Amino acid sequence: VLVLERRDTVGGAAATEEVFPGFRVDTGAHRTGGLSYRIVNDLRLAHHGLELIDADPTVFVPVVGGTPLTLWCDPRKTADAIRELSSADADAWIPFTELIGRAADFLEAAWTTTPPDVTGNDIRDLIASAKLGAKLRRLGKKDMVEVMRILPMSIYEFLGDWFESDPVRGALAASAVTGLCQGPMAGGTVYTLLHHHVGAGAGVIRPTRRVRGGIGRLSDALVADCEASGSEIRTGTAVERIVVEGGHAVGVVVDRGEIRAERVVSSVDPRRTFFDLMEPSEMEPEFARKMSNIRYKGVCAKVHLALSGLPDFTCQPGVGDHLNGVISISPSLEYVERAFDAAKYGQTSRQPYLEVSIPSRTDPGIAPDGKHLMSIVLQYAPYTLREGTWDDAARAKLSALAVATLAEYAPNLSSLVEASHVMTPLDLEQQFGLSEGNIYHGEMTLDQLLFMRPVPGASRYRTPIPGLYQCGAGTHPGGGVTGVPGFNAAREILRD
């Protein structure tokens, strides 16, 4: 097996880089909440140096002039915290986490099942569908009906059945729309919430799992396993074109010539694969039309800050465990919906939803002594702006917006910032090859999931071009650092 990587470092968006002296910054992906432990164990990644950190608490939701919310790994502890906001919500919390856990367990079974070809009658498809149906029935009649009912719902409607307090609703709504060009009132956002809870563990909501030393250490461990298995990895080698002869993929063209292969497996997104690396004439017109209609619509920017100290939140003063996980600037569901409003018109949110983390709190080695690293995912910052471009001035405005928004909750933050680094959706596209800056290789909406990811007829990792396969987040089950698309694709390639 030969692996080709365009960048000088392995891992694509799962990279850790020194953008500030002495700081190890996850410039692309930064969490591994859905990483399959089966893959970790099968590839002996711990033996190759991988160490995962599960933050506890998972989420802190600060508020201005009110009571903040802290979500702990122990649902009973979270229920006690919620009781300060609402007794009814506290009583509902554990039953809610149990439903989320059962639904996520069902999704996990769907994740590792190759989507069936709904247009065919292959016996393997029928068996896989039957096994998945049996898993659904094992939920019991009540839960089976409930899971099927909630999957297409908006998170707004779903949470209306469960909770009344703003911070609880805001924390959950934010998880459901992370990375989406949608707001909490959009249909199908419950599915996204469940997607982020596969493998989370019993009672854990919004899991915050990181890699010690930075997510690049995960890529390093994978490299070590590949090399131990006899595979070759070439960095700084950009694929310029997929070679198709006689309707079959037979190799790739790189800057130093042509490499022939029995099979070509692409982990870049569908647009890159079929329109940047191939010619439309090499595909059937109907297939090319379907692929061209995949929506991307990136809306996330990343802001990294080198800090001289830790932020002090007015609603919960001092340094404490609340800084360990995600700090979610989502004080209410309506706040998140209003943040989305601007994106509808090609504008950056004036009051954005922020997913903030200070990874140096639980992993001190990624920052110099006495310093801290803060990483912020800012949403919504649309790839396509109605006015202007993503130039240096726009980057500076994003950094200032992130700091000013956080300073409403932690006034000392502005005085702590020593340096900043901004990645707009355009930067994510140019540096990591993410079309339109979409972190999931295509929107995670119901019409672009399961047997429709990326499109019907190419959802089983094979493509209509013999010898060409896909294995990235643009395939089932979708985005996040899970390893599952590659795991499933490898299984199908071996079957062939």
UniProtKB/TrEMBL annotation:
<feature type="domain" description="Amine oxidase">
    <location>
        <begin position="1"/>
        <end position="484"/>
    </location>
</feature>
<comment type="subunit">
    <text>Interacts with COX5B; this interaction may contribute to localize PYROXD2 to the inner face of the inner mitochondrial membrane.</text>
</comment>
<dbReference type="GO" id="GO:0016491">
    <property type="term" value="F:oxidoreductase activity"/>
</dbReference>
<protein>
    <recommendedName>
        <fullName>Pyridine nucleotide-disulfide oxidoreductase domain-containing protein 2</fullName>
    </recommendedName>
</protein>
<dbReference type="GO" id="GO:0005759">
    <property type="term" value="C:mitochondrial matrix"/>
</dbReference>
<dbReference type="Pfam" id="PF01593">
    <property type="entry name" value="Amino_oxidase"/>
</dbReference>
<comment type="function">
    <text>Probable oxidoreductase that may play a role as regulator of mitochondrial function.</text>
</comment>
<dbReference type="InterPro" id="IPR002937">
    <property type="entry name" value="Amino_oxidase"/>
</dbReference>
<dbReference type="InterPro" id="IPR036188">
    <property type="entry name" value="FAD/NAD-bd_sf"/>
</dbReference>
